[in-house]
Amino acid sequence: MGEPKQIKDRIERDRQKLRRLAENHGMQDNKVLEQSMVLDELINEYYRFQYKKHMMQRQPIA
Questions:
Q1: CATH code, domain carrying 45
Q2: What's the total number of domains in the chain?
Q3: Per-residue CA distances from 48 to 7, 21, 34, 43 (Å)
Q4: Is residue 62 in some structural domain?
Q5: CA dihedral 22, 27, 30, 41 (to 10 degrees)
Q6: d(CA 41, CA 56)
Q7: How far, in Å, CA of 15 to CA of 4, rounded?
C-alpha cells in the first residue's frame, strides 16, 4: 500500500470511521464488522512492513 506513515494515517481514519459506525449502528451491525476487518488488514499490513524492515536491519551473528 505505501509507507508506514501513510498506513498509520489510514489506520487512524479507519479507526475513527469504525467508532462512528459502532455508535450509529451498534456493534452487531454488518457495516461495523466489515469496517473492523478493513482496519484489521491495515494493521496487519503495517506490522508486516515493520517486520520486513526489522529483518532487513538484522546483523549476522557470526
A1: 4.10.280
A2: 1
A3: 11, 27, 21, 9
A4: no
A5: 70
A6: 22
A7: 16
